[in-house]
Amino acid sequence: MNLVPHRPRQVREIISAAERIAGVIVRESGQPIERVRADIERDLQMPADAAITYDLGSRYITRRESCPPHEIAAAAGAVPLTGSIR
């Protein structure tokens, strides 16, 4: 079964997306690009504790109550508001 798209543009877009994802993982985890590419190629999936070892996170949350709302907002990339809205 051949799963590679027949259209060259789609192939380029898939490769480009994989490279962008790899770049983010390298930047955030400090892992070597070769390792990240190999892990993406083989669709590596890992449990939370392995992701922490890989440096993709610093901790995992077991219950919603254990994470304050400001940490959830920060993890989502929200910028805290300062001052009042006029």
Report the major sheet: none
Structural class: mainly alpha
Instruction: List low-confidence stretches.
Output: none
Inertia-based shape: elongated
**C-alpha termini separation:** 60 Å
Strand residue content: under 5%
Mean pLDDT: 78
The number of distinct structural domains comes to 1
Number of helices: 4
Question: From the alpha-carbon coordinates, what is the Rg to the nearest angstrom?
Answer: 18 Å
Total strands? 0
Keywords:
86 residues, mainly alpha, 4 helices
Task: Describe, in plain words, how this protein is organized in 3D.
There is one protein chain. With 86 residues, the chain is mainly α. The protein has one domain (9-75). It has four helices and no strands. It has helices at residues 8-29, 33-41, 48-53, 69-75. α1 (8-29) crosses α2. The longest helix has 22 residues, at 8-29. It is elongated and about 50 Å long.
Question: Which helices and strands appear, and what pairs or packs with what?
Answer:
Layout: H1 8-29, H2 33-41, H3 48-53, H4 69-75
Helix pairs in contact: 1-2
Question: Concise description?
Answer:
By secondary structure, the protein is mostly helical. The protein has helices spanning 8-29, 33-41, 48-53, 69-75. The protein is elongated, with a radius of gyration of 18 Å.
